[in-house]
């Protein structure tokens, strides 16, 4: 079986080394992926100067080209975001906008460079919004060429109107652990198939 790699884009609003619930849950997903032999790494996007725009390189010190290179080098992309006002973070929105450029990037056979890559979503927040954010994330990432597996997300919605964060929990809820395990297993299964046989040329 081919070796696989995963990259988490942590779209927390909190710069490193600040504590991040998004980092905790996405880290648990990386651990689940590692149990299937996948190597993983994380980029906290807010730490980098990702310029606004919809091109692969916006110039003038834009950090996106280096991040993009790591995205294209991974088999599995994990888009991880907190929930604010029921929505994904502004950092996640910046990532989606930059990924729009992939619509114009193709290989010698006319496929997008993201074809054959798998995407997962991670969402955390002490308010409603996870299902909406997952649905929007799946649509965005699928539009730019990624494939989403069955049960391709893990999330935690804390009790609304309280101050408890995922990083404050003493134990991982069983439902979250189960969703994380299933998302990892399904992503690896799909990624191995696509690595062996990519989509046909259009």
TrEMBL record:
Family matches, as Pfam families: FMN_red
GO molecular-function terms, A-Z: oxidoreductase activity
Transmembrane segments: none
InterPro entries: Flavoprotein-like_sf, FMN_Rdtase-like_dom
Domain NADPH-dependent FMN reductase-like: residue ranges: 7-152
Entry protein name: NAD(P)H-dependent oxidoreductase
The organism of origin for this protein: Phycicoccus avicenniae
């Amino acid at each position: 079986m081919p070796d696989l790699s995963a990259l988490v884009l942590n779209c927390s609003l909190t710069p490193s080394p600040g504590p991040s619930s998004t980092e905790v849950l996405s880290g648990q997903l990386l651990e689940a992926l590692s149990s299937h032999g996948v190597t993983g790494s994380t980029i906290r996007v807010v730490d980098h100067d990702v310029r606004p725009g919809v091109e692969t390189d916006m110039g003038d010190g834009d950090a996106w080209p280096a991040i993009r290179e790591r995205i294209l080098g991974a088999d599995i992309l994990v888009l991880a975001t907190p929930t604010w006002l029921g929505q994904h973070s502004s950092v996640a929105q910046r990532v989606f906008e930059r990924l729009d450029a992939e619509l114009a990037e193709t290989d010698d056979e006319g496929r997008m460079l993201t074809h054959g890559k798998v995407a997962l979503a991670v969402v955390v927040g002490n308010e409603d919004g996870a299902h909406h954010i997952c649905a929007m994330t799946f649509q965005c990432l699928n539009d730019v060429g990624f494939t989403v597996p069955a049960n391709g997300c893990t999330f935690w919605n804390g009790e609304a109107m309280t101050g408890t964060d995922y990083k404050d929990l003493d134990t991982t809820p069983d439902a979250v652990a189960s969703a994380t395990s299933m998302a990892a297993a399904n992503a690896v299964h799909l990624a191995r198939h696509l690595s062996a046989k990519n989509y046909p040329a259009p």
